[in-house]
Amino acid sequence: MAEIGEQAPDFELLNQDGKTVKLSDFRGKKVILFAYPKADTPGCTIQACGFRDNFPNVETANAVVLGISPDTPEELRAWKDKINLPYDLLADPERSVLESWGVWGEQTTSSGQTYVGVNRSHWVIDENGAFIDIQIGISPQDSVDKALAAVGG
Questions:
Q1: Which of 50, 133, 140, 152 is the most exposed place for a label (fewest CB within 10 A)?
Q2: Number of folded domains in the chain?
Q3: 132 is in which domain, residue-wise?
Q4: 1 within some domain
């Protein structure tokens, strides 16, 4: 499990347009990376739109937003267009990054049922690639609020 102050492991994934995006491409900026279970579902839309609606504050704080899920680039493109997101969504259908970052696995619903999926989370990474905020298993709105506070946006 990652800790505050540690370097974020680099990765590369395809975005909604099928273009390769590397985390290290954003050095010199803060990065809000949020993991969500499934594009175009209620909680995920709240989280994604929260970052969309606060995007001017993110940019003012010299930060970028990246979403990551096990969806395909095609599914991400459709959702990005539908809700007009100004940032990249990253496809991890093999769940390699989600697993290595500790947010893919068995989850328990509020009613006690278990399933395998993404534990909604976010990480805020500073300009030098170090973690400054880590929230694993967070509600959609709290994720937006806490990530924005961490970047100063």
A1: 152
A2: 1
A3: 12-151
A4: no
Give the residue-averaged pLDDT of 12-28: 98
Is pLDDT above 90 for 115?
no
In angstroms, how far is the first alpha carbon of the chain from the final one?
26
Q: Cα(22)–Cα(140) distance, rounded to whole angstroms?
A: 25
Q: Shortest CA distance to 101 belongs to which of 116, 119, 89? A: 119
Which residues are tagged catalytic? 44
What single-letter DSSP state applies at residue 143? H
3-state secondary structure 29-67: CEEEEEECCCCCCHHHHHHHHHHHHCHHHHHHCCEEEEE
Partners of 32 in the β-ladder: 65, 124
Using the predicted structure, report yes or no on whether residue 109 has a pLDDT greater than 80: no
Distance CA 101, CA 12 (A): 13
What are the pLDDT digits (tens) for 131-150? 999 999 999 999 999 999 99
CATH number of the domain residue 138 falls in: 3.40.30.10
pLDDT, residue 56, reads 96
Rounded CA-CA distance 96/55 in Å is 28
Rounded-to-integer distance, Cα 137 and Cα 108, Å: 11
In this structure, is residue 4 part of a structural domain? no
62 DSSP β-pair partners: none
